[in-house]
């Protein structure tokens, strides 16, 4: 199955690459920060058609079409373009993110960083890979010297989960904090030892699914803000991903502004 996920991620990546910096339609979803382009939709259509043809009995949860056939044992969790705001503004940081869940467990995940042409993948129990080479999280154990990354939800103005307060607190407690604009790539940079940790409130299953497995298979940890593991298909996914060594320190920082 991983070969198929890789194949379809790269095919979707070709559509996205061809559309980058071209004229494409943009619509607003919930507000003027929350965009969807025709390229998001084209990418998703290609992926869904592929899955339906090759795995007709599998369920699909995909961001733009909101498809839910979640009774089947296997489910494909699809973000056809993670980093739409970057894409729409010509900033080359975005990805295709596809994870497969069996029962409640993520068994495979692929994140394709389209413009860099870097593909991250993992299968449960088999390690994590970046363009075919094994990756692992780094060994930094002090948050004070850590490089962290985060993201903000589209409903930041109403969201009650203190995203800005957390951001300030991490700025004061780390070496530096970045905001790249693709949660899937954020996870993969933790998995490959670039970032020591990533956190974000209220992510969706398609933002997290593949990246969570890739971090875990690279030796890292992904939990909720209380430090507990969580199921990918539950309602809220306030995520902390780290190399494991600074995880408790990150949870402590989050506690300072918890509701
Ligand atoms: C978004 C990106 C961003 C994160 C947002 C996500 P989208 O996904 O991953 O980094 O901060 O919370 O919604 O909308 O570009 O697929
Ligand atoms: Ca996303
Ligand atoms: Ca998306």
Task: Give the strand content.
Answer: 25-35%
Bound small molecules, deduplicated: D-MYO-inositol-1-phosphate, calcium ion
Mean pLDDT level? 95
- Derived from helix and strand composition plus strand pairing, the structural class reads alpha+beta
DSSP helix count? Answer: 7
Side by side, the strands of the main sheet go 3-4-5-6-7-8-9
Evaluate the radius of gyration. Answer: 17 Å
| Helical residues, percent | 25-40%
Main sheet, how many strands, which sense, barrel? 7 strands, mixed
What multimeric state do the chains show?
single chain
Distance between the termini: 41 Å
Low-confidence stretches: none
SSE succession: HEEHEEHEEEEEEHEHEHEEH
**How many distinct beta strands?**
14
Question: Can you describe this structure in just a few lines?
Answer:
The chain is α+β, with helices and mostly antiparallel strands. The chain has helices spanning 2-19, 38-54, 84-89, 163-173, 183-191, 205-217, 247-255; strands at 26-28, 35-37, 59-62, 74-82, 95-102, 105-113, 118-123, 128-130, 133-135, 147-150, 176-178, 197-203, 221-223, 237-242.
